[in-house]
Design a protein that fits this description.
Radius of gyration of chain A: 13 Å
Structural class of chain A: mainly beta
Strand content of chain A: over 45%
Shape of chain A: globular
Largest interface: A-B, 21 and 20 residues
Order of helices and strands of chain A: EEEEEEEEEEE
Distance between the termini of chain B: 37 Å
Radius of gyration of chain B: 13 Å
Distance between the termini of chain A: 40 Å
Helix content of chain A: under 10%
Number of strands of chain B: 11
Structural class of chain B: mainly beta
Largest sheet of chain A: 6 strands, mixed
Oligomer: heterodimer
Number of strands of chain A: 11
Shape of chain B: globular
Helix content of chain B: under 10%
Order of helices and strands of chain B: EEEEEEEEEEE
Chain lengths: 111, 115
């Protein structure tokens, strides 16, 4: 059974700090990895996706992937109160269109 | 970016009635759409995978006769909750997979309340 694990949090960081969100997955054949942000009462919105080992940067967000360790992370630099949300890690298996979601990490950025 | 709409955004109904939720991909064709359910403070739970022109694939524990899915075109999938009961009250979210792309694009969700 494919599993995606995330620390449920809440993770609290001060405004301007770096928030680090972590995710591990069980299916070694997974190909693509996604980070979604979900505000309370809203549907998820895609922040970033990553396919290859290493880092991928997009503005204040950096996704990191280590397939050998089956680990993917999201760094948020210069955290803002508006970043306060639940962050969902999702994994796409090989040859599949189905995403497997983690339970999400709740991030709280303190002004 | 790809846009997915859902209608209605919110519905309140009496126990025993049926409710239809529409999911549309507005600017792309989606051969595959997914229906999720999310209870308060819980993660997304995949209910079923909907493929255009074929029967939906339901996840274990999801009653296919209760949650009817139709994917008649490349831009529209519908979920009908038949004989809804209070325990069906939840946030229903669809997503669409754009042909040739890896990511899924989510609709805004439909909040169903069954009295």
């Amino acid at each position: 059974q494919k599993e995606v694990e995330q620390n449920s949090g809440p993770l609290s960081v001060p405004e301007g700090a770096i928030a680090s969100l972590n995710c591990t997955y069980s299916d070694r054949g997974s190909q693509s990895f996604f980070w979604y942000r979900q505000y309370s009462g809203k549907s998820p919105e895609l922040i970033m996706f990553i396919y290859s080992n290493g880092d991928k940067e997009d503005g204040r967000f950096t996704a990191q992937l280590n397939k050998a360790s089956q680990y993917v992370s999201l760094l948020i630099r210069d955290s803002q109160p508006s970043d306060s949300a639940t962050y969902l890690c999702a994994v796409l298996g090989a040859g599949s269109y189905q995403l497997t979601f983690g339970k999400g990490t709740k991030l709280s950025v303190i002004p | 970016g790809a846009v997915v709409s859902q209608h209605p955004s919110r519905v309140i109904c009496k126990s025993g009635t049926s409710v239809k939720i529409e999911c549309r991909s507005l600017d792309f064709q989606a051969t595959t759409m997914f229906w999720y359910r999310q209870f308060p403070k819980q993660s997304l739970m995949l209910m079923a995978t909907s493929n255009e022109g074929s029967k939906a694939t339901y996840e274990q524990g999801v009653e296919k006769d209760k949650f009817l899915i139709n994917h008649a075109s490349l831009t529209l999938s519908t979920l009908t909750v038949t004989s809804a009961h209070p325990e069906d009250s939840s946030f229903y979210i669809c997503s669409a997979h754009q042909t040739g792309a890896g990511e899924q694009f989510f609709g805004p969700g439909t909040r169903l309340t069954v009295l």
